[in-house]
Amino acid sequence: MMVMGEMWSQVGSVIASLMFAYAMFQQYFPYDLRRYLSKYSNKILGFVYPYIQISFHEYSGERFKRSEVYEAIQNYLSANSSSRAKRLKAHDIKDSKSLVLSLDDNEEVNDEFQGVKLWWTSYKSVPKNNSFSLYPNSDEKRYYRLTFHRRHREFIVESYLNHVVKEGKGIAFKNRQRKLYTNGSSDSWYGGKRTKWSHVLFEHPASFDTLAMDPKKKQEIINDLLKFKKGKEYYAKIGKAWKRGYLLYGPPGTGKSTMISAMANFLDYDVYDLELTAVKDNTELRKLLIDTSNKSIIVIEDIDCSLDLTGQRKKKEKEEDKEQGKDPLKKAEEEDMNKSKVTLSGLLNFIDGIWSACGGERLIVFTTNYVDKLDPALIRRGRMDKHIELSYCSFEAFKVLAKNYLDVEWHDLFTTIERLLGETDITPADVAENLMPKSDDEDADVCLKNLVEAIEKAKEDAIRKKAEEEEKLKAEEEAKLKAEEEEKKKVEKQNLEKERESEGNSGKEDVKCNGTLDKEVKVNGSVTT
């Protein structure tokens, strides 16, 4: 026991002596000498130490910009190696769905990739000066150190590190909270925030399971979206930007906005709701496009109402101003500051021009109630690749709504509703409103009866409206015929008056001619006498 105690005391003395010598070395030896000694000692150590170390600092380059590689490594280790660590730290990271666990300071974990074993260690360095700082945490520098055998150097640099960064970014994307963005006036782009897009959390619950439309058409859209999401290599092979355009058209209340939300939830994409009327010109439109992220849906709702892209509305306004006695030039000067100058050409370049290739994995979605009003160049294939008509509620769509709202798959009134839906145009929004219970006393029977009454009323209103339109058309046709008849009579009357006037002038000329002849006879008579 005495021998063991003496041995430990000697070891302690040696360690203490070494620590004292190291402290003296750090304190009194010049920096240049310490640097050279450290340099050559590392070289000597490299001959006998077979491992290589790579450090990844939290802040590299600009001090206040966090390294994306460091964040990717943190996410990778949090998902793959934190279960083997004994000491962890929990972070409440902004825009993340849950707490993120990472290695605590000076904690080490091992990792294995394709049979190669590696070690990750988390370090924190604290400055040795004793100066007071208002922000002490900002002086701390954290970094990860990767250790591996030198025979695997090429494999680690070319394969493993790329794998770690790719996996880390994928984990961050999966854990993020999705956002709904909107653009504001460009006047706010250059203030303290310097942001072109403002956002809120995207929490719309719509899904393809709850979407009221024909199941075959729904599955066709799902297959198309899946093919696009997996098509990175395919789009690169055919030489096209990794984007796809969707045109959603149909009457109001047919589910165009709900379709966009379902697409975003299905693909796990962010949504950018672009308000064209707030964009001053084509340059600002390009800047907004550049500032959008990958894996997103860019939406322009009611594209036919957003801007005058054909010039017809402008011409009509000028004609109205002329009729009202307004000066078109003066009015143009007054509205010039507030009016958007985005042109059809600028919008086409936004969708399908060179700038559209900045970034990838984007969907561009237009919605409209009146597809016939849009310029054909705007919605041709290659720009709006897939046209989806969202029409009035069919029986198949009704069954989806009945299942969602009432948890009913069959009812005695379904046959009646199927017949009425085949005879009447009613939107899914109107059907859903009637299926939704308004109190605890309303059950499926009451809601379905309410729906039957609503469809029958809509049918009666449609018949009455059609009769009124036919009567109106008939009245307009009769008024048109009457006007044509009056115009015809007026023309005939004018022609008759002209004929009478012509005959009157002809009679006067005959009388004049007869008087002249009488004078000639008298003259001749006097001559003969």
UniProtKB/TrEMBL annotation:
Region (Disordered): 314-335, 468-529
Catalytic function, reaction form: ATP + H2O = ADP + phosphate + H(+)
Keyword presence, tRNA processing: no
Required cofactor(s): Mg(2+)
An example Gene Ontology molecular-function term: ATP binding
UniProt keyword annotations, A-Z: ATP-binding, Hydrolase, Magnesium, Nucleotide-binding
PROSITE patterns in the record: AAA
Gene3D superfamilies: 6.10.280.40, P-loop containing nucleotide triphosphate hydrolases
Segments traversing the membrane: none
Bias type Basic and acidic residues, positions: 317-335, 468-522
Keyword ATP-binding: yes
Example GO biological process: response to stress
UniProt xrefs under SMART domains: AAA
AAA+ ATPase domain residues: 242-394
UniProt record similarity statement: Belongs to the AAA ATPase family. BCS1 subfamily.
Listed PANTHER family: BCS1 AAA-TYPE ATPASE
Protein name per the record: Spastin
Organism encoding this protein: Parasponia andersonii
Lineage: Eukaryota, Viridiplantae, Streptophyta, Embryophyta, Tracheophyta
